[in-house]
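Hi U.,

Before I forget, here's the chain from the pilot set. I'm dumping it here mostly so it's searchable later in email.
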Amino acid sequence: MFNENVCSNDKIGQRHNLIYDCDRVSHPFDRYAAFTDLAVLKDYSARPLRKSIRVNTLKMSVEDFLAYAKKKKWELTPVPWCREGFYIDRENREEALGRDLFHLLGYFYMQEAASMLPPALLDAKPGDAVLDMSAAPGSKTTQIGASLVYARDDTPKGIIVANDVQEKRLWTLKNAIHRTGLTNVIVTKKVGQWFSKHMTERFDRVLCDAPCTAQGTSRKDTDALRYCSLESIEKMSRLQYQLLEAAIHATKVGGRIVYSTCTLTPEENEAVILQILNKFSTQLEVLDPGLIANTPSEFWSITLNDSYRVQENLALTASRQPLLRLWPQTYDTEGFFCAVLQKNAPTKAVEPMEMVDFQERELSRSERQRIEGEISSIYGTSFLSERDRLFERGEMLLLSTEDVAHFDLPLKNYSLGIPFGKRLKDGRVLLDHELATLRGFMANNARLDMNESQLADLLSARDTTCPEDQAGHILLFCGAKCIGLGLAVRGVLKNRLPRWMVRYS
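Structure:
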């Protein structure tokens, strides 16, 4: 546990101002000379970022992905801290990874390797209530979502509240959730500090991936180093402290908080953690990440020692804290920082809150049964399990879960679940593309196994041929994977793939 050996907040701030004034150095990284080899740091930061992907196990097993990668002649190297993560190298780079069919369908996700670390350390389990406080663009949210599924029956259990505050970022987040098939998520639009009072002790796990000066992203964004003045760093560190404090209040006693940034400054990393521990010295404990994730011990010793070096050089604390500092050169990634905290006692009194209904209306049992019967008569399955729930918002039907339906919120949600289908004017339900790519494999009827010519037609925004005896909306398959829907009319298959999918494929 953290105790009186910690320096005061004022002393930490004074120490930083004395040692680190980046306005007085020729390069933003010169301020790290006491912590790491500057020449190596600058060299790696100037290199292109190594590409990495994460298999979306909500839609595809790691084993199936490895077989697919072998067929595509991709060379994969495992990411040490994420079983589903791989660095990827390819001889043929004519086709962009982002245009790969399975990426477009959400079977795998392009995600920087370092950003896979916070969800791995969060270690959410099926049944947990999780808050992702700054969730957009959605890579970490969808990674957490895959961990809330029982492997034995593919049933999502538990919920994720995925929060962000900017409208544009929320749309990006929603798209990621829909594409990857994350049904047990509630999207909210609030400043992170709001959760401190309004959702005190509601979550088993909270991820605080805080906004930052983003120095660690300079390998993919050369502008990142333009925003690292002392004023910017101090502004960000104040915001980060507020968000982390809110995350701690929102966590249940016995729960876990992971704090992370993609920057290198001690003010936004070690100092924020040490300041928060100074305030909650008896309520919080820093967990040793080496005891959490199934990762080689060598990884933890290197990254922990890099943070110890910062803490000792700045004399921030008399007792070293096990915090993770990932320099770009350590594992050829972005620069990153992580801390894992456990809440052992209350930090704020729980205040009574008035709960608010979802914007979506849950369908009654009779309404759901009618839809199940209609869908089953066409496809031989309703695509629904006992724990699923259907919600309605306008003409759209949304697929979510029992746990989401029972999770009370003191605010109007932004969205929930994924699209299931659309009500037509005649009362019928047309399945949605997201439902088809997530659960299309369950269908016994109204499905077409396409050949290469048919697939090429559809991905080129053309209609194609189909058997004369097929009619109506049918599920389209490429091997064992459903890629979407088409409309069969007298031997012609009308293209019903989403415009964005055809445009980018």
